[in-house]
Amino acid sequence: MIRRAVSISAALGAAAMLAFAGSAVARSGAPTTVTIKKESDGFFGFVDSTKPNKCANNREVTVYKEKGDSPDPSSDKKVGSDTAQPNGDGYMWNTGNTGNQKGDFYAFAHRIPGCKKGISKVVTRH
After folding, report:
1. Which domain holds residue 11?
2. Can you give the CATH number for the domain in which 112 is found?
3. Where would you tag: which of 13, 31, 57, 126 has the fewest CB atoms within 10 A of its CB?
């Protein structure tokens, strides 16, 4: 009986360690890089990753206009979005015409399973 309790306890401990290790791996993910450039009345850029098929190809990118002093996708104004597609040797996204808005803008790709979030530098349109 004692041996069985020890075996069950050891199995539960091992399962807990595997679950913890799995969640740590899931949070890490492959790095993601997002770029942004101004284009007439819209924006475009590229998504790159060490796992391009999983983390760049078909990755949704959202462009935000900053409301404050730094990027904050939870409170900034969404301007447009697109899905990155193969283009040459990269994965390009393009919002099309978003209007002639002035301000500070950035592109953001939310974290997805196996891939870290990506955020571009801020560009200013005068």
Report:
1. 1-29
2. 2.60.40
3. 126
| Averaged pLDDT score across all residues of the chain | 86
Q: Which of 40, 47, 41 is nearest to 83 (CA)?
A: 47
- The CA-based dihedral angle spanning residues 53, 81, 65, 33, taken in that order and rounded to the nearest 10 degrees: 10
- The verdict on 63 and 110 lying in the same domain is yes
Averaged over successive runs of 10 residues, the pLDDT of the chain (126 residues) comes to: 50 47 61 96 97 98 97 97 96 95 97 98 96
Domain count, the chain: 2
- Note whether 37 and 53 are same-domain residues: yes
Report pLDDT for 100.
Answer: 86
Q: Sign of the C-alpha dihedral, residues 84, 50, 64, 74?
A: positive
